[in-house]
């Protein structure tokens, strides 16, 4: 607890003082006083709260889906990683694998990428930029939302994608990832 007090005193109070000086003359003295009293605690809550850290990404869940005709029932996380890195190119049945991603700004992509690849989305974007630049490959196509991913997976027998957990539709099958 003393570390939080020291942090507030040493790091946040100078910032609060600068903000209060900036506000001087713009707003009333009451607002300045209120800002000086409450701002450090609000800022500390924001900085120290787990709701604004990595746990935020896991607030939603994802599920991996394949075309309903695909006989595969489960994959390991490593197999899913290899599929989305285009290092596993065929299903056991011989059908070509067709992975599909969600757009980089999608919350479900952030969770999927953090769990499966153990990296942030930005790292995967960089990986694919390097692959394109060196002529080694192109990333999976990106779809705007769950509905677009479902439509893609329904239309292609070898397709695999991920959607927000708990959603279902005909023509797709959820996979167990172990």
Give descriptors for this structure.
alpha/beta, 178 residues, 6 helices, two-stranded parallel sheet, single chain, 7 strands
Q: Can you give a write-up of this model?
A:
The protein is 47% helix and 15% strand. The radius of gyration is 23 Å and the shape is elongated. 22% of the residues are buried. The strands form 2 sheets. Strands 2-7-1-6-3 form a 5-stranded mixed beta sheet. Strands 4-5 form a two-stranded parallel ribbon. It is built from 6 helices and 7 strands; from the N terminus they run ααββαββααβαββ. By secondary structure, the chain is of the alpha/beta class.
Q: Nearest-angstrom radius of gyration?
A: 23 Å
What is the arithmetic mean of pLDDT?
A: 82
The rough form would be described as: elongated
Record the strand order, biggest sheet. Answer: 2-7-1-6-3
Question: In whole angstroms, how far apart are the ends?
Answer: 39 Å
The count of β-strands is: 7
Tally the helices: what do you get? Answer: 6
Quaternary organization: single chain
Largest sheet: 5 strands, mixed
Give the % helix. Answer: 40-55%
Beta-strand content estimate = 5-15%
Element pattern in H and E = HHEEHEEHHEHEE
Task: Give the helix/strand class.
Answer: alpha/beta
- Contiguous uncertain segments of 5+ residues: 49-57
